[in-house]
Specification:
Elements: H1 2-5, E1 10-14, H2 18-25, E2 30-34, H3 37-42, H4 48-58, E3 64-67, H5 73-84, E4 90-95, H6 105-113, E5 118-123, H7 126-135, E6 142-146, H8 148-153, H9 158-169, E7 175-179, H10 186-194, E8 198-202, H11 203-206, H12 216-233
Parallel strand pairs: 1-2, 1-8, 2-3, 3-4, 4-5, 5-6, 6-7, 7-8
Helix pairs in contact: 2-4, 5-6, 7-9
Amino acid sequence: MERLRGLRVKIFADGADLAGIMRLYGNPLIKGFTTNPTLMRKAGVDDYESFARTVLAAVPDRPVSFEVFADDFPAMLRQARTIASWGPNVFVKIPVTNTAGEFTGSVITDLAREGIALNVTAVLTVDQVRRVTACLARETPAIVSVFAGRVADTGVDPVPLMREALAVIAPRPKAELLWASPRELLNVFQADEIGCHIITVTHDVLAKLELVGRDLDDYSLETVKMFQRDAVAAGYSITTDAVTEPA
């Protein structure tokens, strides 16, 4: 726990499981919450606004990000303004492009100038970070979510990219870099080491927090016991009578 308390990176919980969100709200290590339409659909959410308002009632004092799902820019603007009105702690998630690959810079610029806190999402390249940063207002809070986990999925080390992204957003004092889509708990410590502001972590990965600082010899023995226990429980057997011992 000492190692966790020493983290500078802020951990945001990523998910749409309402019970999980309410449980994690009680954990002082969790500094904010994010979700997206895909996670909400997987969780069985059928009323977007009702779900969002329920979450905001349960989490009134930490940042919570909700995403627009319109695909044309005027509709994005309308949805973003509505979502922002749901609470003072709301960050509106704007995808870096629409589904046609068109950069949403004009949307980001207009909303940032209006003072709406933004979370620009689905960013995967430093060039995208540069273009997004140029659209942000110096006085408006913003999060730039770089999907480092997806970068790693392509066989590329995301750490150098994230370091460069930090330098790019530095001229925007209200902007924070978020390490998105981590694949393992180690990513939390990698993000912390390079000075990343935020990392968003799914509920299943957050469940591994209790393993931090675990004695590895004990963990090894527990693993051996697990393999043996499951083999016995499955009733596995190997016929060894025909095997002769070496002379």
